Amino acid sequence: MNSFIPVCEPFLNGNEKKYVEECLNTGWISSSGKYVTEFEQKFAEYCNVKYGIAVCNGTVALHLALVALGITKEDEVIIPSFTMSASAFSICYTGAKPVFVDADPHTWNIDISKIEEKITPRTKAIMPVHIFGNPCNMNKIQKIAQKHNLFIVEDAAEAHGAEYQNKKVGSFSSVAAFSFFANKNLTTGEGGMVVTDDKELYDKCRYFKNMCFPINAPRIYEHEDIGFNYRMSNLHAAIGLAQVEKADEYKTNRIKNHQLYRKLLKDVEGIIFQTDEKDVINVCWMNAILLEPNKYGKTKDELIQHLKENNIETRLLFTGMHRQKSLEKFGCDMIGEYPITDNLTQNGFYLPSASSLSEEQITKISNLIKDFAK
Ligand SMILES: Cc1ncc(COP(=O)(O)O)c(C=O)c1O
User: What is the value of pTM for the model shown?
Assistant: First the structure.
């Protein structure tokens, strides 16, 4: 068997079709409709928070969260340099400056010991990113935030259902954001969600998400503020609801797959996996590996090519925020060394990671990696 194994693909094995068909049959295909509310409620419940605000992707979920907190162009927000560009761009949309902190060499999350040196009088918030589903040490981050009177905005785009000290991610900050892009553990195709326990922030998110139409009031076409159309459609929410119904199944699959990769590759020299933070459930969104070429005996590019020749798709890891021309043009401070991030970019990549991967597929991929060493 040599069929193509994609780096990721959605797993839609529940009520998705049934719910979407209902939208089509009833004509409720836009952003009004029962699935949006149901999805918001069920996902918020899943995260153990009071409120969910469904939006059209994870990037705008982050932006909406920052807008609700009142972040503006006078402010700075601290983010990891090793993240997806959406973390930084969402801050730029408010006019505020993203400020970078290198990754921890083991967990690949933000290096918490380096956060305080980046705090200035303009810092308003920290945006920890639970990289690849591995929850950050929220205890330490909360302590720094309290000491310096900063907001926390969790970028939980990759970490649906992940836990830190028996508490779900998304519940450690005033407001947090998730993505439901097709490769995520839970997907709506394109989609996102802001979650919060704070009624005021909830109302602000609803207000700004929908063009700043007055909420809980008759529709009038007068707007006191500039709003956004960040609404999620009922069709997307229908898929989302079906996915939340299966959230624990997908989480278990992802974790199980990751453990199998680790087990099969544990004796291969020069292959490093992310180290979990303490007291966490890492939901293993993607199976990223970091190569030490001198130990493995081949470079990352050679291994990627070898897998490609065997019909196995891989994907590069993020390029650091300190290397983004876009952010330099925006006026971010690009000076400084980010060696851990650079190493991850240069020597890391994702192995196939879909929730639907079979044991046979993971074994095949692992054997190819093992046999190619040295
Ligand atoms: C860490 C992180 N933040 C934000 C996003 C943005 O989500 P979306 O692609 O839904 O806009 C992603 C998407 O992959 C992500 O990985």
Answer: 0.97
